[in-house]
Amino acid sequence: MNMFLKILFNIGTITSFGVISILISFHQKTQRKIPAIHGFFYGLGAVIGMLQPVVLKPGVIFDGRSILISIAGLFFGPIAAFVAASMAISLRLFQGGPGVWVGCLTALISAIFGTLFYVRYTYKDKQMSTFQIYLFGLWVHLGVIACFLALPRDVVKDTLVNIGPSMILMYPLATVLLGKIIALILSKKQIMKDLERSKKQLEDLNHQLDEKVRERTKDLEESNASLEAFSYSVSHDLRAPLRAIQGFSAILLEDYGSVLTEEGVHLLSIIQKNTSKMDALIKGILSISRITKSKPEKTTLKMKTIVEQCLQEIVPKEDLKRIRVHMEDLPPAWGDPVLVRQVWWNLLDNAIKFSSKKPQSTITITGTVLDSSVEYSIKDNGVGFDEAYKDKLFNLFQQLHSPDEFDGTGIGLALVKRILQKHGGTIRAKGSLHDGAEFIFTLPEE
Amino acid sequence: MDSMDATEILLIEDNPDDVELTLRALRKNNLANHITVLSDGEEALSYLFHENSPEKRNEPYTLKLILLDLKLPKVGGLDVLKAIKSHPFTAIIPVVVLTSSDLDKDIIQSYKLGVNSFITKPIDFQKFSHSIQEIGMYWLVLNRLPKELFS
C-alpha cells in the first residue's frame, strides 16, 4: 500500500511537470515543425520526475519517464521520442545501480511504442479516442513491465509484485490525462489553422469578386462610352445632311416656287415632310438612349397638375370643345418630374391623336393607390387597336396605323415603357379595334 | 482701317452646306456684309491668334460675334472656344455655339468654357433662318460692346 501511494505521488509529480512541459513546448512559435524542441521539453519533464523516483532498492528506481517519452513519440514523432528518451537515458546512466540497463531499456521501449503509434495515428492525421489513448498507455507499460524481467533475479519478483499492478493501473490513466491535454491543444491549433485558412480563402474570393466587378464595370463603361459616341454621331452627323435636304428644298421652293408646276411644289413638300419625320425619329432615338443611360431623380409628384399642364400644351384651341376630359383627383406619385411628365405627355398625345376622328373625344383619367404602388389609367374612345398586337405596341418603331391615318414615329410608347421600367413601374394596354384604348401604368411607392 | 470692310462676324463651320444656309439666312436679314468664313479649328486659331492677331496688325479686333460649330476638323470647336475665352485679347468677343448637337454634355461643357450662347441648329429651314436672324439681331444690333475692344 505504501508503494502504491509512492507511485501515485510520483505520477502526480510527473504529470504536473508533463503539463508544464506541454504548455512550454507549445509556446514555441514554430509549433509542430521542430519535433526536437517538443522532445527536449518532454525529456526535461521526465528528467525532473526522475530526480524524485520511487526507490524499491538502491539503484532500482521507478518513475513516469515512460509516460512522457511515449507521449512525445505519439504526438511528435520519432525525433521527439528519441530526444526525450536520450535525455532520460543519460540521467539514468549517471544515476547508475543494478537497474541501470533496464531503466535505459524502458526509456527506449517507450520511445519505440510512441513512434509505432505515431505512425499508426498521428502521421495519418487520425484522431485518437480516449479509449485508444488508454490502450496505447496500456501497451507501453506492458512493454515496460516486460523489461523488468531483465532485472537482476533477486529484484524481479519484488518489482513485479510491488510495482507492476500499480503501474498497469495508473500509468495508462496518466497517459490518457496528458494525451487528452495535448490532443485538445492540437485540435484547437488545427481549428485556428482551418479558421485562418478559410479566412484567407474568403479574402481570396472577395478579391476575385472585386476583380470581376472591376472587369465588368470596365466593360460596361466601355460599352457606355461607345454608345455615347454613337448617339453623339447620330445627333451630329445624321442631322447635317438632313438639314441640307430640308434647307435647300426650302430655298428651292422660295426662289423657284413660281416657276415650278403644282406637282413640283407638291413633290418638294413631300421631301420636306419626310425630312421632318426623319428628324423626329432621330430625336426619338436619342431620347431613348438618353433614358437608358440616365438615372431617375425622384421626388413627390402632383400628378393632376402634370396632366393639366400637358393637356394645355397638347390640346389644340379649336378642339377644346370637341375633347372632353374626365379626371378625378389623382394620387401623388414618386418619380422623376421630367420623365414622368414625358409618360403623361405621350399617353395623352396618343389618346387625343387616336380619338381625333370622333365627333366627340372622351378621355378618362383615373388613379388608384395599390399595396406598394400607385396605378394610373388613361382611357380614350378613339380607334383602339387589335388586342392581338398589344404586346407589339411598346416596341420601338412599331406603328399599328398607317401614316396616312395618323402621324407618328413609333417611339412614344417605347419611350414610355422604358421610363416606367427605369422607375420600377409597369405598363399594359387594353383595347379593341375601333373601340378605344386604355393604358394602365404603375409607379412604385417611395 | 476702314470699318466698312472689317470683319464683324466670324463663322467657323466645316460643312459647306451649312455655311451656305447660314450665309443665306444672314443675307436675308442684311447681316452678311462683314463676314469671314473659316472651315476648321486650326484655321480659326491661326486667324485669331497669328496672321491677323491684333499684335501683328497693330490694330484692334472689329469682331462683334463668333459663330462656332462644335464638330470641326483638326482642332475641335470646344478647343477653339477654350482658346478664345482664355486669351485676354479675344475673351471679350461674344461666341455663339451653333451646332447640330443638343447633348447636355456639349451644352454644359460650352457654358463652362464661357460660351455666350448655345443654339442647336433646327432642321427646318424656316426655323433655322429665324434663329440666325434672331442671333444676328441680338448680338449685332441689340447687344452693347465697348467701342474699342483693345486700345
What does this structure look like?
The complex is a heterodimer of chains A (about 450) and B (about 150). With about 450 residues, chain A is of the alpha+beta class. Chain A has three domains: about 1-200, Arp2/3 complex 21 kDa subunit ARPC3 (Orthogonal Bundle); about 240-295, no CATH class; about 295-445, Heat Shock Protein 90 (2-Layer Sandwich). Chain A contains twelve helices and nine strands. Chain A has helices at about 1-25, 35-50, 65-95, 100-120, 130-150, 155-160, 165-235, 240-255, 260-295, 305-315, 335-355, 410-420, and strands at about 55, 60, 300, 325, 335, 360-370, 375-380, 425-430, 435-445. In chain A, the strands form three sheets. In chain A, strands 4-6-7-9-8 form a five-stranded mixed beta sheet, with helices on one face. In chain A, strand 1 and strand 2 form a beta hairpin. In chain A, helix 2 crosses helix 3 and helix 4 packs antiparallel against helix 5 (about 130-150). The longest helix of chain A is centred in the middle third of the chain and has 74 residues, at about 165-235. The radius of gyration of chain A is 48 Å and the shape is rod-shaped. The two termini of chain A are about 85 Å apart. Chain B has about 150 residues and is α/β, with parallel strands linked by helices. Chain B has a single domain (about 10-140), classed as Response regulator (Rossmann fold), CATH 3.40.50.2300. Helix content of chain B is about 45%, strand content about 15%. Chain B has six helices and five strands; from the N terminus they run E-H-E-H-H-E-H-E-H-E-H. In chain B, strands 2-1-3-4-5 form a five-stranded parallel beta sheet, with helices on both faces. In chain B, strand 3 (about 65-70), helix 4 (about 75-85) and strand 4 (about 95-100) form a beta-alpha-beta unit. The radius of gyration of chain B is 14 Å and the shape is globular. Classes of the chains: A alpha+beta (about 450), B alpha/beta (about 150). The interface of A and B includes residues 236 and 241 of A.
